């Protein structure tokens, strides 16, 4: 994965899109990649790049020791700055070759670094598990038709509302003219899809056979 020119608007935009669905550059735990991109970015971009700003403040909170343990010196992700780094003289290069700030890959993968990664993954998993599951619901508008114009429509509505089921919530109702002075009861309800079947609900309403001739679904919408 390559994030080039992260200190340009186009480069920051690409990184911002990636962080919309990812907590870190390489997934859900901090890695060397985060510190590589962090160093190339230089500062929080501000403005509309909310995901990058959130990520930048979080990475900035890591101590130097934590960065060293996570191996901030190298990464499989590359981030290229727009300006070339200043040239160093040969003596400075020789001095740098003699100093290994972060040690070898074997040293980075020590027990302490592994423990830190495990704790962060565990904390993230626990946070995910506490999120409430999404309950699928539907809004249903029912047409309840009587036998004739002598049917007590107020009593019909009272009987319909006596139906109680887990996952069923009755809403508003009104009388709608049909023909020849006959009116139908139009009643709204909200159901949980996994618990309530519309067919079963209709059957229960038609059990009031002295009042109800038929039940039709006037509207059905997922919530």
Q: Mean pLDDT score, rounded?
A: 81
Q: Return Rg in Å.
A: 32 Å
- The count of DSSP E runs of length 2 or more, i.e. the number of strands, is 6
Helix content: 25-40%
Q: Helices and strands, in N-to-C order?
A: EHHHHEHHHEHEEHE
What key phrases describe this protein's structure?
223 residues; alpha+beta; 4-stranded antiparallel β-sheet; two-stranded parallel sheet; 39% helix; elongated
Structure, explained:
It is elongated, with a radius of gyration of 32 Å. With about 220 residues, it is α+β, with helices and mostly antiparallel strands. Strand 4 (about 170-180) and strand 5 form a beta hairpin. About 40% of the residues lie in helices and about 20% in strands. The protein is built from 9 helices and 6 strands; from the N terminus they run βααααβαααβαββαβ. It has a 4-stranded antiparallel β-sheet with strand order 4-5-3-6, covered by helices on one side. The longest helix is centred in the middle third of the chain and has 19 residues, at about 110-130. The two termini are about 40 Å apart.
Write the layout of secondary structure elements.
Layout: E1 2-4, H1 9-18, H2 32-41, H3 50-60, H4 64-69, E2 78-80, H5 90-98, H6 105-108, H7 111-129, E3 137-146, H8 153-161, E4 168-179, E5 182-192, H9 198-206, E6 212-222
Parallel strand pairs: 1-2
Antiparallel strand pairs: 3-5, 3-6, 4-5
Summarize this structure briefly.
This protein is an alpha+beta fold. It has 9 helices and 6 strands. The strands form 2 sheets. The protein has a 4-stranded antiparallel sheet, with helices on one face.
């Amino acid at each position: 994965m390559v994030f080039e020119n992260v200190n340009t608007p186009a480069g920051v935009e690409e990184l911002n899109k990636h962080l919309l669905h990812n907590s870190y550059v390489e997934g859900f735990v901090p890695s060397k990649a985060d510190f590589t991109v962090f160093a190339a970015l230089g500062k929080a971009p501000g403005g509309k790049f909310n995901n990058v700003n959130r990520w930048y403040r979080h990475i900035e909170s890591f101590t130097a020791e934590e960065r060293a343990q996570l191996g901030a010196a190298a990464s499989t992700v590359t981030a290229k700055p727009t300006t070339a780094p200043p040239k160093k003289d040969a003596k400075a290069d020789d001095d740098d070759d003699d100093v290994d700030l972060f040690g070898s890959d074997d040293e980075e993968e020590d027990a302490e670094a592994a423990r830190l990664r495990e704790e962060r993954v565990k904390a993230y998993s626990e946070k995910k598990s506490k999120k409430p599951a999404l309950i699928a619901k539907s809004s249903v508008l029912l047409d309840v038709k009587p036998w004739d114009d002598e049917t007590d429509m107020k009593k019909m509505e009272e009987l319909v509302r006596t139906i109680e089921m887990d996952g069923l919530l009755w809403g508003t109702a009104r009388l709608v003219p049909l023909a020849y002075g006959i009116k139908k009861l139009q009643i709204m309800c909200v159901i949980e899809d996994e618990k309530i079947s519309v067919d079963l609900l209709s059957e229960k309403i038609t059990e009031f056979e002295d009042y109800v001739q038929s039940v039709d679904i006037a509207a059905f919408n997922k919530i």
